[in-house]
Amino acid sequence: MRTAPGGYPHPMAGTEDAYTAEPFVPRRGGLPALREAAADCRGCPLHRAATQTVFGAGKASARVMLVGEQPGDQEDRQGKPFVGPAGKLLDRALTDAGIDPADAYVTNAVKHFKFTRAEPRERRIHKAPTLRETTACGPWLAAELDRVAPELIVVLGATAGKALLGSSFRVTRVRGTVLEEEIHGRPERLVPTVHPSAVLRADDREGAYRGLVSDLEIAARALG
Question: Is there a contact between 22 and 13 (Cβ–Cβ < 8 Å)?
Answer without folding.
Answer: no
